[in-house]
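[recover] target loaded
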């Protein structure tokens, strides 16, 4: 009987499996194959274009070639977009959720107001914030209502850059960041499991910390001149609009988690002398840790798909606010460099996979462990 049910389930799922294999994984495989060719240029739109195998030349051009400088800056922008969205949306959403969890007057109204931006599309959000961040109006003229001078900051067209670094030193920077993450993780584990943490983290920490300069000396430099990248201040307007739109979403996630905590547990904590700060720090926040992980995964994925917001706010030709998704569109459909555009798509796919696959594996293990 059990085998009969399995056969029935298999044939029920078979059409979905076939469609998924063809239209998702098949197209991903085809995109990867195109990225390994030289499809592009004047003859790219021919009826039967010639596509020769070029290996990983397109990837080498993106990360180390002279013409790939714009993509590298867009990749740096994407990192800042992701970090700012995570910090801003999760931080603000958590604060709003804590405030609403204490049942203030007008809770339902505030919850609706905070969640409303999530109902808007990126195109609508981009259009609204483009008007609000106009140099001669919007946010810049707010001080005039209090008798002050208008602001002169160019939210979407600034050419100033901060936090600059040389692309040549990227390997050393990444290794230092990994070493810092290991150190913080090690301190956290030492509080929980001192002996086990020391064994697990001592060797990786030494390898990362001591081998950084060795790796940097052994690997050849791809460029022959310094190439400075950093946070362009023109991206602040886009970051502000994105955080505004998704803070309500994270607020709803956290509020649902706080609502799911038993009121008896909260009452018991209060009877034991725990204040509101201690309750959220030691009880509520640890219990909603899976929600935090889910929010990080979802927002990281969203930060890689900001094409429509950037297109609506600054247009496709503002290099200061570029994004790999926008670069992929311009490279593929404006420059007709289909192979290089496919390579950018694969890079974005791999970056998204680094966030999603570990989360899926962890969720699968938790489900298996709970059986």
């Amino acid at each position: 009987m059990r085998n009969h049910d399995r056969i029935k389930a298999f044939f029920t799922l078979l059409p979905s499996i076939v469609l998924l294999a063809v239209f998702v994984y098949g197209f991903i495989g085809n995109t990867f194959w195109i990225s390994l060719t030289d499809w592009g240029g004047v003859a790219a739109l021919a009826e039967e274009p010639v596509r020769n195998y070029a290996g990983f030349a397109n990837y080498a051009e993106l990360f180390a070639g002279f013409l790939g400088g714009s993509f590298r800056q867009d990749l740096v922008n994407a990192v800042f977009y992701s970090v700012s969205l995570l910090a801003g949306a999760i931080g603000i959403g958590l604060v709003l959720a804590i405030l609403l969890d204490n049942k203030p007057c007008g809770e339902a109204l505030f919850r609706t107001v905070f969640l409303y931006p999530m109902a808007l599309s990126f195109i609508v959000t981009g259009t609204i914030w483009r008007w609000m961040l106009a140099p001669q109006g919007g946010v810049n003229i707010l001080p005039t209502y209090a008798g002050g001078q208008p602001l002169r900051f160019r939210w979407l067209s600034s050419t100033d850059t901060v936090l600059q670094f040389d692309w040549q030193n990227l390997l050393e920077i990444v290794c230092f960041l990994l070493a810092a993450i290991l150190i913080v993780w090690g301190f956290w584990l030492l509080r929980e499991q001192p002996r086990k943490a020391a064994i697990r983290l001592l060797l990786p920490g030494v390898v990362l910390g001591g081998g950084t300069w060795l790796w940097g000396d052994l690997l050849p430099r791809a460029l022959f001149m310094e190439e400075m990248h950093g946070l362009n201040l023109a991206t602040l307007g886009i970051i502000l609009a994105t955080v505004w739109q998704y803070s309500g979403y994270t607020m709803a996630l956290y509020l649902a988690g706080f609502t799911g905590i038993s009121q008896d547990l909260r009452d018991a904590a209060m009877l034991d002398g725990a204040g509101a700060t201690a309750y959220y720090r030691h009880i509520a926040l640890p219990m909603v840790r899976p929600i935090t992980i889910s929010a990080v995964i979802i927002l990281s994925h969203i930060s890689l798909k900001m094409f429509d917001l950037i297109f609506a706010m600054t247009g496709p030709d503002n290099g200061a606010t570029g994004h790999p998704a926008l670069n992929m569109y311009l490279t593929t459909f404006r420059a007709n460099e289909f192979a290089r555009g496919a390579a950018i798509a694969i890079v974005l796919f791999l970056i998204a996979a680094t966030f999603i696959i570990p989360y899926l594996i962890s969720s699968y293990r938790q489900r298996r462990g709970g059986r």
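[recover] notes: The CA atoms of residues 117 and 309 lie 13 Å apart.
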